[in-house]
Amino acid sequence: MNRNLRLIIPLVLCLSACNWFKPVPEVGVVLAEHLDNKLYKKFDTAAYIPVFRRIADSLATHFSNPKTIAEVYASQGYEPHLVQSFFADGGLDSLRDYIKRADTHGLDPKIFRLQQIDKLLSQLNANRFTSIDEVYPVVAALELNVAEGLLKYSNFLKYGAVNPRKLLNRFYIKIGRPDSAFMQKVLQTDNLLATLESVQPAGEQYRQMQAALAAYRRSGADANTLQVMKVNLERLRWQLPKNEDEEMVVVNIPDFSLTWFDKTDTLAFMKVCVGGRRERAYEEKIKRYLKSGSLDDKPKNHETPLLVSRINSIQANPIWNIPVSIAQSEIYYQALKDPYYLSNSNIKVYRKGVEIGEPDTIQWSKYPRNKLPYQFKQGSGEGNALGKFKFIFNNGSSIYLHDTNNKYGFKLRNRAISHGCVRIEKPLEFAELLVRNKSQYDLLRMEVDLPPLDTNKMPLFRKKQERKRDTANTYQLRPKWFGTKKPVYLLINYQTAWPQNGKVEFRPDVYGHDEILWRSLKKYAAG
């Protein structure tokens, strides 16, 4: 071997052992170039990682998703991806600016680690380190605080700060929530500005509510008003199931209204009656009931559930299958008090699917109401509680929209009076929009004793009327089913404030949902 080569090889091995030829990690290169300081080229990944892990452990209890953050950084070898990718190009400054404006969403910038990020950015920008060991804790802390701030901001803005399904009674809407795939994508973004923009709530209604919140703050609005607006901004952030259609029917419980939208146009608007509010001190009473098992301890809860579905059919002259809860709490007592109540109310009684011929003879006092062996159905006709129309949609609560034989309820200011179903003010108009067919609509009208709009069908209508009046042959009114032209998207929702015609409409918190949500939201809310 050449004598010079024998001398060079040990020298190279020595230099290698001393890390002289070790490549500078990307974060060191970025900081050295951006801050014009060669100190950062001494950045040693092996020395940095223990510092990062120690700081991560100390901050874990302050983070909303420490497990996700830990998994992401472990998978990328603890590389400070966010600092090395977005410090030099101003991306972290943009994140800080977005977070500063979180109060325009009704959220407190502090919850997104604003103060910590601001302080650490200032330290790194000051570029006053005397050794590379002083750099590691600043880079690690900045990386982790940025990760937490970005992740929490993205989750809250895109999906909402609280999960209503865990808080609200009878909230049956399957809303979107941040999952591990979404959070990993956020933390590993290669375009921070695009990510920040993508999580901003969409929709004109949200933007108008933001502007209104700012205006109300400037005008010195009271704390309760601002609180209601923040709660309703939160509702608008929840990711409701997408409606692919142009049309949708929205029932807003606090407004006691139903609106049929076609994009931004309104095809129909009408009053509704909704379920009554559950009893006060419901939680305490339900605990007592679960312990005793006595129906006398069971508190009432008739609140209309919040849900998404599609209206798919109409039943004219409906039969009312009376729920067990109503049978136990109301029908039982009425029958006990008046033996002729059932027959006078056109209510038929069944046992194991077989109709009881003379329900007036049943000795109701023999049966405890929690063990009634009977089922009840109210037949079609004028006295039926559902009126002349029932509008069907799939749901797990056995509720529907329907007509009513008691129109007085629509004159009330507080129309939370039903057992949970939604009574609508203009069922005929609603049915016409659902069938969207003149011939079908005329058939529907004739089923409920209304003349057809097509005069050519008058002979058929008269024939139907004559058959009903024929005393020689007993006529039994039966339900008639009609299909909708297409399934129509239905949202039963709860909004106590919303922008309309340049101002904000406010409604009473009829079920106390605002109060429940605020208890969880206020720790995140801006002052």
Q: Let me know the number of strands.
A: 15
Molecular shape: elongated
Low-confidence stretches: 11-21
Please state how the strands of the largest beta sheet are arranged side by side.
1-2-3-12-10-9-4-13
**Percentage of residues assigned to helices:** 40-55%
* Major sheet characteristics: 8 strands, mixed, barrel
Gyration radius from CA atoms, angstroms: 33 Å
- The pLDDT mean sits at 92
Query: How large is the share of residues in beta strands?
Result: 15-25%
Structural classification: alpha+beta
Count of DSSP-assigned helices = 19
> Between the first and last Cα atoms, what is the distance in angstroms?
79 Å
SSE topology sketch:
Layout: H1 3-17, H2 26-35, H3 45-59, H4 66-75, H5 81-86, H6 91-100, H7 114-126, H8 132-159, H9 180-187, H10 192-198, H11 204-218, H12 223-237, E1 247-252, E2 257-262, E3 265-275, H13 282-292, E4 307-316, E5 320-321, H14 324-337, H15 341-344, E6 347-351, E7 354-355, E8 375-378, E9 389-393, E10 401-402, E11 416-418, E12 422-424, H16 427-435, H17 438-447, H18 458-469, E13 480-493, E14 497-500, E15 503-506, H19 513-521
Parallel strand pairs: 1-13, 3-11, 10-12
Antiparallel strand pairs: 1-2, 2-3, 3-12, 4-9, 4-13, 5-8, 6-7, 6-8, 9-10, 14-15
Helix pairs in contact: 3-8, 6-7, 7-8, 11-12, 12-19, 16-17
